[in-house]
């Protein structure tokens, strides 16, 4: 694992040197598949190049980016394929061979009052393309999750076709229609305000983003799988360094309070899984699961107290402890249904507290372990939390490895 991280960092440094002057390396995304070495190795990478030799506005950034991505991702879905009802056992578990490409145009406006070299506002317009094909889980036939509750005993992991059934009408999982291949197009608009000083030991200021994603059905039905959706995301982050002790040679200790608030609205007749994941409330809440609590509307607030220790012999490498408290709501219909049934015992209000123990690498990767305690709501994978079903309760800690911080 250590050798892999060193290799990734070396490639980043090499790429930055290679694309000197007006060209630069652009990182897009990195993901893991839990079925491949328990998710410790990256299974998906998106990256590319950016050219900023143009200037439409004097002293403001103009950049054109071209990115490509590919890999093998894992999805775990918790809706009945026929009715769309939420299921609590035997989910759809499958893998996706995913290839992505993007063209982005970024334009900056105004100067950041905290740093005159940065832009205060950045507008990004994107064309995003995607091809994916679904494959059976590598664990077909194994028990899906060992937990039992309310007398439900999970069965073996099914193939995609077995889970969907012969009479599947494609409504709930539209991108899995037919031969499970999907070719799609998305247009994106993003406006970001950045007044944040951001480093390992200091976070001060404010930043916000407004994002629109549109995938019209006319451009998302070339193959059997199809999609039709519109997404609006709003996010704001504020931070303040409560205390910091440093010398000319070393950053010894800092205490930072940071808070994120995020809202999502998703609509459309065929919202695919790759859209559902990032906007699902379970993804944005620590102690819960991606692809759970996926509704039209969601709001979340994440509060962190981040304690950073001294550099570990290398500037940019430091231990960090994050104490967190999250809460959020999910409301409206579940994706691709007219069902708005409550799951948790508190009206789809989720809350959790916990701690993350990490080693941060250049404030980019945060390797470590997370312990979360769901106070309200249900963790589907671990079978812990609180359900409306007969007032079922199974409180407990949820542990997971961390690779990145979300904000």
Describe the structure in your own words.
The protein has helices at residues 2-18, 160-164, 273-279, 281-284; strands at residues 23-32, 42-51, 62-77, 92-112, 115-136, 181-198, 203-215, 228-246, 251-270, 295-308, 317-334, 349-361, 365-376, 378-379, 384-386, 393-394, 398-402. With 407 residues, the protein is mainly beta. The chain has a single domain, classed as Porin. A hairpin with a 6-residue loop joins β15 and β16 (393-394).
Strand-residue proportion: over 45%
Number of helices: 4
Nearest-angstrom radius of gyration?
A: 22 Å
Largest sheet at a glance?
A: 14 strands, antiparallel
- The SSE string, one letter per element, is HEEEEEHEEEEHHEEEEEEEE
Mean pLDDT: 90
The assigned structural class equals mainly beta
Taking pLDDT < 50 over at least 5 consecutive residues as the criterion, the unreliable ranges are none
What is the CATH third-level topology name?
A: Porin
The order of strands across the largest sheet is 1-2-3-4-5-6-7-8-9-10-11-12-13-17
Overall CATH architecture: Beta Barrel
Which percent range fits the helix content? under 10%
Shape: globular
CATH class: Mainly Beta
User: How many individual domains?
Assistant: 1
Total strands:
17
Q: Please give the alpha-carbon distance between the first and last residues.
A: 24 Å
């Amino acid at each position: 694992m250590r050798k892999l991280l060193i290799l990734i960092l070396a490639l980043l440094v090499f790429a930055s040197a290679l694309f000197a002057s007006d060209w630069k390396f652009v990182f897009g995304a990195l993901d893991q598949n839990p079925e491949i070495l328990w998710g410790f190795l990256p299974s998906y990478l998106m990256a590319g190049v950016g050219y900023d030799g143009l200037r439409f506005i004097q002293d403001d950034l103009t950049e054109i980016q071209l990115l490509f991505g590919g890999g093998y991702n894992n999805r775990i879905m918790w809706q009945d394929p026929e009715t769309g009802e939420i299921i609590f056992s035997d989910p759809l578990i499958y893998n996706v061979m995913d290839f992505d490409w993007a063209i982005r145009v970024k334009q900056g406006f105004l100067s950041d009052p905290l740093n005159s070299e940065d832009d205060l506002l950045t507008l990004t317009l994107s064309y995003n393309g995607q091809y994916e094909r679904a494959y059976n889980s590598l664990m077909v036939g194994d028990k899906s999750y060992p937990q039992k509750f309310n007398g439900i005993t999970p069965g073996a992991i099914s193939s995609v076709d077995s889970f969907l059934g012969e009479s599947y009408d494609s409504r709930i999982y539209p991108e899995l229609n037919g031969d499970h291949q999907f070719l799609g197009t998305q247009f994106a608009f993003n406006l970001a305000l950045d007044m944040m000083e951001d480093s390992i030991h200091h976070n001060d200021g404010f930043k916000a983003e407004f994002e629109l994603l549109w995938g019209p059905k006319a451009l998302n039905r070339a193959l059997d799988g199809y999609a039709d959706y519109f997404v609006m995301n709003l996010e704001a982050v504020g931070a303040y360094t409560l205390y910091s002790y440093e010398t000319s040679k070393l950053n010894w200790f800092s205490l930072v309070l940071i808070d994120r608030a995020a809202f999502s609205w998703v609509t459309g007749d065929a919202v695919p899984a790759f859209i559902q994941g990032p906007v699902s409330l379970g993804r944005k809440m620590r102690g819960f699961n991606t692809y759970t609590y996926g509704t039209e509307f969601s709001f979340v607030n994440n509060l962190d107290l981040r304690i950073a220790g001294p550099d570990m012999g290398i500037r940019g490498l430091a231990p960090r402890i994050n104490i967190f408290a999250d809460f959020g709501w999910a409301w409206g219909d579940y994706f691709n249904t007219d069902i708005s049934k409550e799951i948790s015992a508190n009206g789809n209000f989720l809350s959790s507290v916990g701690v993350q123990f990490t080693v941060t690498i250049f404030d980019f990767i945060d390797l470590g372990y997370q312990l979360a305690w769901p106070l309200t709501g249900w963790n589907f994978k671990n079978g812990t939390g609180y359900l409306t079903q007969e007032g079922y309760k199974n409180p407990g800690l949820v542990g997971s490895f961390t690779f990145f911080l979300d904000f």
